[in-house]
């Protein structure tokens, strides 16, 4: 099951993405890494791709923290 921000296992394997980076934002990491390699990791290049990836990471973190707080409230009741 893949979404717009999650790549399939075959895509991740082809892009040689380490297991630790295969998360909800993995589909955004593939073009970011391609851009980084093409631009020789220059920090001012690939800003749009990096911003999209970091925003996805932040939103995923916030989603998980909201879910955790809901579970804690349910456990207290």
Automatic annotation (TrEMBL):
Membrane topology: Peripheral membrane protein
Recorded coiled-coil stretches: none
Assigned keywords, A-Z: Disulfide bond, Electron transport, Membrane, Mitochondrion, Mitochondrion inner membrane, Respiratory chain, Transport
Compartment list: Mitochondrion inner membrane; Mitochondrion intermembrane space
Region forming the signal peptide: none
UniProt cross-references to InterPro entries, sorted A to Z: NDUB7
A cellular component annotation (GO) from this entry: mitochondrial intermembrane space
Chief place where the protein resides: mitochondrion
A Pfam family it matches: NDUF_B7
Job description of the protein: Accessory subunit of the mitochondrial membrane respiratory chain NADH dehydrogenase (Complex I), that is believed not to be involved in catalysis. Complex I functions in the transfer of electrons from NADH to the respiratory chain. The immediate electron acceptor for the enzyme is believed to be ubiquinone.
Family: Belongs to the complex I NDUFB7 subunit family.
Protein name as it appears in the record: NADH dehydrogenase [ubiquinone] 1 beta subcomplex subunit 7
The organism of origin for this protein: Trametes coccinea (strain BRFM310) (Pycnoporus coccineus)
Organismal lineage: Eukaryota, Fungi, Dikarya, Basidiomycota, Agaricomycotina
């Amino acid at each position: 099951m893949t979404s717009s921000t999650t790549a399939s296992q075959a895509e991740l394997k082809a892009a040689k993405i380490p297991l630790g980076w295969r998360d909800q934002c993995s589909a955004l990491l593939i073009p970011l890494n391609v851009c980084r390699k093409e631009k020789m990791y220059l920090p001012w290049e690939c800003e749009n791709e990096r911003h999209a990836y970091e925003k996805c990471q932040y939103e995923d973190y916030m989603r998980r923290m909201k879910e955790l707080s809901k579970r804690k409230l349910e456990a207290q009741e």
